[in-house]
């Protein structure tokens, strides 16, 4: 009965979403308060109904009700409880339901939390949000019903994939979806503004917090996925430029541009077209990400044609959402009133360059992700686009961006004095050059990109700290006064400082772990010794252990350096007999300087008994990536916690400046 | 019970939407109100920043001046809000009524209210049964292993078939493998061995399985299962047209309908697009479906109407009796349902199709028989 309640709740939800798609819009056209206000009640209703459906599905997973097809094919009675719960969103159908649940919760947030929003804007926004809900609910009910039943029920479920039974991976999709779907609100606000034909101050006020919240979740989601790949797959890599990763990275890049652009819209009343366009693009890329992963398009273009019903529905939804909103943008954007003027050298100009560079970087990734799919669809040829492409296209764009990032925050609004700013940064520039040269010296003939990147990372870090020191006038006034100023700085400012510094830390990690990685892969017998990055590693042997639902073969590696004991690494290979599959449990010794990473594989063939495949890696600075990502997210949270509205304070014109240019 | 819950859910939904029709008492927040509230907020913020020394007095003045300019701009544009209407309650009520109606219609299409929940913990009986079968299989295996002659061929075959039903394909393959070298091995046992290998490899016809099917055909060229999997191997090797030809040739070789033809036809229709060939109709290959032979039909044509009716009835009754013995035969129920509708016995026809529908529930959504049954039932008004 419980699954049927979920089914009926979804049917009701679709009907309610349809009402909410139409009635509030009619209200704005006819100036009818009752119709406009109905959106508040229906968005509460939608949330309750979808939550009932989600609860029903989760209940079915928790008690292993195999009369639900989705449970039978994605769970197993022997799964640990945590992963039964996580399996709720593990499948295509369940993940769509989670998607919709988050979507309606965000809608509820707008209808209940957002005060100060004119009724018309609110009604339009909630109606657009309901279009998205209706699109997803109908897609789910007609092509991917999570409550399809089977009777008689199979005796037990089919899936017990131990590779996916991991906390990192269980949390990865919800965070990713909170990010993706969070952008839906900004999208709805943007489409509502386009329908109205102008941007309200309230619009500008609300875009940034919603975007920031979504961005923080997306950042965490991406990092969790990357971290999981690092420790669970046994290759020691953290980013593969795999299409699955790229489709989550693109909304992140566009979202980053979006909230920077929203700062200008909020504080300076300009960049409106930019902000709206970025809002539309960011959510479009989120939709693309959800669908590209969910449609099976990535494994092969042919997977799409195997299930044409789903594929066509997806294409139609994407075409309506993306095509429709972009068309609306093309029609309405020229009418948007222009905002404040600014000089070619100013904070606004810096953020404009930021928008341009991030948009270009997004396009680069989009091209690299979709080109193989298009090529396969047209010619049938299968190619893969990997790091070489991104190293020559994406990385240089980002390096330029980092260069600008160092300067941007030091520029004042409206018009700025670049020479003065550069003068303040001259010794940071010197330090970065020194760092780059030091790296050059240590790594003669090493990759130019690595040298350059480290230099730029140091530049960014130095510039961020310089900016902060300037704000609190460190060294110019007594220390106590500086401390007082430091306390008084708005949290949003600390958000910027922490996030920018986080990116610099990440960069150091990216470069360290990819440019100076050492790797040894060999067949080892007990007693085999090897040397890597100054460590001496001795393979002691393998013992068989028994876990709760797996058999483990655990290797023992003794690590010494210059004869003194460092650590013992115990990489494992776990076999899960019930699932008929195995997982790699790598052993990692983490320090700030670098990770020593070991994984082990069974003997390659029957007659190689006693010989194991050992993979030992030394990845310098890799932990900096996780620290830096943490700082990025923390910066977002800090900025979000500063809910005050601030207006950029323009500096009074000191000397004649070039004629200001119009923002858009 | 479930209908009461549904009714309550629908009623609550109706009430919440209908309730919005009563609202509208509070003042409406206009664009101008919202803007002035936000700008007032911003000005307060600038003043606070100025007090804390984050910005200088001069910067503060400039910022405030700018906010005020923006406020004026908004006030200039804002058209006087025409008095908002509060009518239109009827439409809200109509929407509130439409929601449960639409949801009921959707649920009618999608739901399966008759299927109960079955939490795993409450299925002890079934699990005990499954354990018992597993237990019996284990005992059978031990007994077969302990026999000096290596165990009876029939015993191993039974064990293999049991494992297949339990979904333990690798064990099944192992059981069948023991029989392959015996002198009394039959073509069917060899092809069952191959089938187990295919299932164990998730439907891939491995070379090992392919050899088993070749051998099965040597032993009995008419073994349809072996031909079926050989065609599957061809298709997997990228030659769907060869697979198509092989399957049709095998079906053409039969004089009359055989039960296995249905899976052949389904397979043919699955690979037809890839092979670039037309879809097939089972009837083409089965000119003589079980039922009256050509002679009997010819005789029937010479009968009087009454006699013909009686003859048809006797045929139908024979089928009905047979269905009592084999209630799991989906196609049988469909034939019986058709026969009853021809006779105009709507009640019985509905019954037969109802049985068929229950059996068809486990079939994939794409199975054409499902649609046929649904169509027939709706024509019968069931």
TrEMBL record, chain A:
Membrane topology, record value: Multi-pass membrane protein
Membrane spanning residue stretches: 6-27, 39-62, 96-114, 126-144, 175-195, 207-229, 249-265, 274-292, 312-331, 352-374, 394-413, 425-442, 448-470, 491-516, 621-641
Intracellular or extracellular location(s): Cell inner membrane
Predominant localisation class: membrane
GO cellular component: plasma membrane
GO terms of molecular function: heme binding; heme transmembrane transporter activity
Top-level taxon of the source organism: Bacteria
Keyword set includes Cell membrane: yes
Keyword field: Cell inner membrane, Cell membrane, Cytochrome c-type biogenesis, Membrane, Transmembrane, Transmembrane helix
Keyword Transmembrane: yes
Annotated Cytochrome c-type biogenesis protein CcmF C-terminal domain residues: 315-643
One record GO biological process: cytochrome complex assembly
Residues covered by the Cytochrome c assembly protein domain: 89-296
Short name of any one Pfam family annotated for the protein: Cytochrom_C_asm
Described purpose of this protein according to its UniProt entry: Required for the biogenesis of c-type cytochromes. Possible subunit of a heme lyase.
Family: Belongs to the CcmF/CycK/Ccl1/NrfE/CcsA family.
Name of protein: Cytochrome c-type biogenesis protein CcmF
Species for this entry: Ruegeria intermedia
Native organism taxonomy: Bacteria, Pseudomonadati, Pseudomonadota, Alphaproteobacteria, Rhodobacterales
From TrEMBL, chain B:
TPR repeat intervals: 153-186, 330-363
Organism classification: Bacteria, Pseudomonadati, Pseudomonadota, Alphaproteobacteria, Rhodobacterales
Localization: Cell envelope
Spans through the membrane: 6-29
GO cellular component: cell envelope; plasma membrane
Stated name of the protein: Cytochrome c-type biogenesis protein CcmH
Keyword Lipid metabolism: no
Keyword Membrane in annotation: yes
PANTHER family: CYTOCHROME C-TYPE BIOGENESIS PROTEIN CCMH (PTHR47870), CYTOCHROME C-TYPE BIOGENESIS PROTEIN CYCH (PTHR47870:SF4)
Family matches, as Pfam families: TPR_8 (PF13181), TPR_CcmH_CycH (PF23914)
A Gene Ontology biological process term: cytochrome complex assembly
Keywords of the record: Cytochrome c-type biogenesis, Membrane, Repeat, TPR repeat, Transmembrane, Transmembrane helix
């Amino acid at each position: 009965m419980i699954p049927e309640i979920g089914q009926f709740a979804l049917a009701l939800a679709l009907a309610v979403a349809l009402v909410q798609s139409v009635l509030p819009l009619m209200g704005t056209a006819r100036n009818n308060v009752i119709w406009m206000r109905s959106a508040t009640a229906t968005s509460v209703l939608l949330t309750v109904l979808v939550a009932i459906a989600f609860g029903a599905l989760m209940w079915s997973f928790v008690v292993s009700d195999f009369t639900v097809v989705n449970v039978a094919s994605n769970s197993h009675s022997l799964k640990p409880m945590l992963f039964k719960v996580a399996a709720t969103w593990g499948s295509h159908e369940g993940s769509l339901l989670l998607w919709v649940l988050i979507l309606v919760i965000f809608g509820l947030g707008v209808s209940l939390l957002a005060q100060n929003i004119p009724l018309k804007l609110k009604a339009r926004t909630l109606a657009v949000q309901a279009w998205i809900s209706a699109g997803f609910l109908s897609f789910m009910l007609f092509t991917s019903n999570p409550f399809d039943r089977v009777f008689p029920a199979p005796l037990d479920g089919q899936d017990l994939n131990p590779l996916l039974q991991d906390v990192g991976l269980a949390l990865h999709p919800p965070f990713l979806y909170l990010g993706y779907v969070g952008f839906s609100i900004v999208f709805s606000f943007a489409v509502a503004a386009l329908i109205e034909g102008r941007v309200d101050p309230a619009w500008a006020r609300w875009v940034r917090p919603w975007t920031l919240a979504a961005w923080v979740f997306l950042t965490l989601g991406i990092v969790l996925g990357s971290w999981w790949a690092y420790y669970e797959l046994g290759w020691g890599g953290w980013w593969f430029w795999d299409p699955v990763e790229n489709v989550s990275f693109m909304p992140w890049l566009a979202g980053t541009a979006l909230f920077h652009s929203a700062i200008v819209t909020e504080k300076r009343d300009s960049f409106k077209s930019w902000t709206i366009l970025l809002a539309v693009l960011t959510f479009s890329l989120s939709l693309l990400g959800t669908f590209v992963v969910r449609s099976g398009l990535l494994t092969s273009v042919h997977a799409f044609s195997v299930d044409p019903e789903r594929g066509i529905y997806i294409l139609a939804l994407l075409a309506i959402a993306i095509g429709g909103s972009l068309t609306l943008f093309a029609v309405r954007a020229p009418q948007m009133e222009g905002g404040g003027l600014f000089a070619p050298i100013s904070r606004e100009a810096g953020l404009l360059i930021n928008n341009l560079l991030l948009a270009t970087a997004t396009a680069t990734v989009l091209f690299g992700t979709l080109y193989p799919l298009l090529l396969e669809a047209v010619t049938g040829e299968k190619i893969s686009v990997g790091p070489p492409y991104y190293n020559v296209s994406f990385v240089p764009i980002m390096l330029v961006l980092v260069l600008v990032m160092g300067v941007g925050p030091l520029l004042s609004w409206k018009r700025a004095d670049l020479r003065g700013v550069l003068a303040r940064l001259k010794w940071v520039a010197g330090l970065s050059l020194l760092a780059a040269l030091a790296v050059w010296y240590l790594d003669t003939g090493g990759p130019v990109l690595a040298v350059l990147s480290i230099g730029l990372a140091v530049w960014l870090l130095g510039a961020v700290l310089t900016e902060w020191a300037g704000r609190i006038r460190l060294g110019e006034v007594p220390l106590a006064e500086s401390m007082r100023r430091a306390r008084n700085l708005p949290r949003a400012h600390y958000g910027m400082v922490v996030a920018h510094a986080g990116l610099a830390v990440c960069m150091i990690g990216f470069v360290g772990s990819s440019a100076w990685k050492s790797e040894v892969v060999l067949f080892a017998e007990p007693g085999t010794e090897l040397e890597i990055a100054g460590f001496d590693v001795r393979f002691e042997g393998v013992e068989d252990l028994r876990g709760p639902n797996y058999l483990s073969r655990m290797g023992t590696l003794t690590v010494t350096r210059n004869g003194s004991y460092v650590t013992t690494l115990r990489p494992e290979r776990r076999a899960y007999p019930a699932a008929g599959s195995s997982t790699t449990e790598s052993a990692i010794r983490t320090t700030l300087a670098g990770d020593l990473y070991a994984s082990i594989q069974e003997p390659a063939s029957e007659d190689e008994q006693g010989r194991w495949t050992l993979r030992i890696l030394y990845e310098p600075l890799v932990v900096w990536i996780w620290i830096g990502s943490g700082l990025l997210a923390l910066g977002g949270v800090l900025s979000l916690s500063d809910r005050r509205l601030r207006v950029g304070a323009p500096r009074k014109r000191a000397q004649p400046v070039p004629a200001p240019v119009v923002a858009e | 019970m479930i209908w009461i819950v549904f009714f309550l859910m629908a009623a609550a939904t109706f009430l919440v939407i209908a309730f919005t029709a009563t609202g509208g008492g509070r003042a409406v927040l206009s664009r101008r109100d919202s803007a002035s509230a936000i700008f007032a907020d911003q000005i307060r913020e600038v003043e606070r920043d100025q007090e804390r020394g984050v910005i200088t007095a001069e910067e503060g003045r400039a910022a405030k001046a700018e906010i005020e300019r923006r406020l004026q701009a908004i006030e200039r544009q804002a058209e006087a809000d025409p008095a908002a209407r509060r009518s239109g309650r009827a439409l809200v009520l109509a929407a509130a009524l439409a929601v449960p109606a639409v949801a009921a219609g959707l649920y009618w299409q999608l739901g399966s209210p008759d299927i109960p929940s079955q939490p795993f913990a409450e299925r002890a009986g079934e699990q005990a049964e499954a354990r018992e079968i597993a237990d019996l299989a284990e005992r059978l295996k031990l007994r077969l292993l302990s026999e000096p002659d290596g165990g009876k061929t029939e015993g191993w075959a039974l064990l293999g078939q049991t494992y297949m039903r339990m979904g333990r394909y690798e064990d099944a393959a192992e059981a069948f493998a023991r029989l392959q070298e015996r002198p009394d091995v039959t073509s069917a046992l060899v092809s069952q061995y191959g089938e187990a290998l295919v299932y164990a490899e998730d439907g891939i016809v491995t070379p090992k399985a392919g050899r088993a099917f070749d051998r099965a055909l040597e032993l009995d060229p008419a073994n349809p299962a072996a031909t079926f999997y050989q065609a599957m191997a061809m298709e997997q090797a990228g030659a769907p047209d060869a697979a198509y030809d092989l399957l049709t040739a095998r079906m053409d070789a039969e004089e009359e309908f055989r039960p296995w033809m249905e899976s052949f036809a389904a397979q043919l229709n699955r690979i037809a697009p890839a092979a670039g060939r037309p879809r097939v109709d089972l009837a083409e290959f089965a000119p003589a479906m079980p039922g009256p032979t050509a002679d009997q039909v010819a005789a029937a044509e010479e009968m009087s109407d009454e006699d013909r009716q009686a003859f048809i009835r006797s045929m139908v009754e024979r089928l009905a009796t047979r269905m009592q013995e084999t209630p799991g035969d989906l196609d049988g129920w469909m034939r019986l349902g058709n026969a009853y509708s021809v006779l105009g016995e709507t009640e019985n026809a509905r019954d037969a199709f109802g049985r068929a529908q229950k059996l068809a529930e486990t079939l994939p959504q794409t199975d054409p028989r499902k649609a046929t049954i649904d169509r027939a039932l709706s024509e019968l008004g069931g």
